[in-house]
Amino acid sequence: MGERDDFLSVVKEKEKEDKAARDKELKALEVKIKALEEKWLTNSEEMQALKNKYDELNSKVDALERELRGQSIYVVRIEGWGARVVRL
User: Fold this and answer.
1) Which residues form a coiled coil (predicted)?
2) How far apart are CA 43 and CA 49, in angstroms?
3) Buried b / exposed e across 34-66, counting CB within 10 Å, b at 16+?
4) Cβ contacts of residue 75 below 8 Å, gap of 6+?
């Protein structure tokens, strides 16, 4: 029985070591996930701020176009990734 007990204790010790290694890997993954969630939240907030700024600037351009309407003035509007010339 002595050899069997030694074998079982070695197996149990190996299982404990494997579980500790898995737990450590799981904790590292949890930390990475948390960091990615925080980065995603920050990026989302920055994207919303940029969209708000774009909307604000676009409103100002619209106001300027209305103000200049009727005059022979050309305005270059940047929309998305392109641009268009508008005769006011």
Assistant:
1) 12-67
2) 10
3) eeeeeeeeeeeeeeeeeeeeeeeeeeeeeeeee
4) 61, 64, 65, 68, 85, 86, 88
Maximal CA-CA distance, the chain: 104
pLDDT at residue number 14: 94
Tokens of 51: 């969209």
Confidence at 63, pLDDT banded by 50, 70, 90: confident
The more confident residue out of 87 and 78 is 78
Q: How many angstroms separate the CA atoms of 78 and 60, rounded?
A: 13
Q: Is the model's pTM score more than 0.90? A: no
